[in-house]
Amino acid sequence: MRKMILGSLVVLTFGALLSAGCAKKDVVKTEEPISAAQSAPAPAPVQTQQQARPEAPAAQQPITETTPSREQPVAQETPKDAGKAQEVQAELQKVYFNFDSSDLSEEARASLSKNAEYLSRQAGTKVRIEGNCDERGSDDYNMALGERRAKSAKDYLVNLGIASDRLSTISYGEEKPADPGHDEAAWAKNRRDEFVIVK
């Protein structure tokens, strides 16, 4: 008796699935050309939906295909390399400047001499010198002043024997303040060159 009931349930379930499958086939058949005798308004929404479907995936594909984090392999540092870079970074001293000046003070020259000694022992290490300014002055003026400050430090390091191809410069002007304050103490911290290890 139980076998008959289970058999009937299986047959009914199969029949329901089959009829649901047939309903899907009817929707697909509506794509056939419409004859003049048929009314145009009924199939029009089906055609519009079907035409819109291929466009949606096409719009999404470039987003996933051009994501750099998935496409391009990223070279990973070993813990030893990362530790060495942090050690070198910690040894490089910042250089500070007077207001509206790119001239190196005695203190700045002393810091650059220590940086040169350390870099001479780290053959092959490349450094980017980042020039920064305080918030006073126009954006254009501060970008130019930051570049002059970075170039002053680079020239001094080259004179101390560091190869110029190991040094690059960039100016951030007033864009990357070390101290967000608006007084002389904050401005003095922002008029600086920073030395960043690059690969």
Describe the protein in words:
By secondary structure, the chain is an alpha+beta fold. The chain has a domain at 98-198: 2-Layer Sandwich (60s Ribosomal Protein L30, Chain: A), CATH 3.30.1330.60. It is built from seven helices and four strands; from the N terminus they run ααααβαβαβαβ. It has helices at 2-29, 44-65, 68-71, 79-91, 106-121, 139-159, 184-190, and strands at residues 95-96, 126-132, 167-173, 192-198. Strands 1-4-2-3 form a four-stranded mixed β-sheet. Strand 2, helix 6 and strand 3 form a beta-alpha-beta unit. The longest helix has 28 residues, at 2-29. The N and C termini lie far apart (79 Å). The model is unreliable at 23-32, 35-40 and 42-75 (pLDDT under 50).
Brief descriptors of the model:
signal, four-stranded mixed beta sheet, 7 helices, lipoprotein, about 200 residues, palmitate, 4 strands, 60s Ribosomal Protein L30, Chain: A, cell outer membrane, single chain, alpha+beta
- CATH H-tier superfamily of the domain at 98-198: OmpA-like domain
What is the string of helix and strand elements? Answer: HHHHEHEHEHE
Low-confidence regions:
23-32, 35-40, 42-75
What do we call the CATH topology of the domain at 98-198?
A: 60s Ribosomal Protein L30, Chain: A
Mean pLDDT: 76
Identify the CATH architecture of the domain at 98-198: 2-Layer Sandwich
Hey, roughly how much beta strand do the residues contain?
A: 5-15%
Strand order, largest beta sheet? 1-4-2-3
Rg from alpha-carbon coordinates: 35 Å
Largest sheet: 4 strands, mixed
Distance between the termini: 79 Å
Please count the beta strands (DSSP E, at least 2 residues each): 4
Helix content: 55-70%
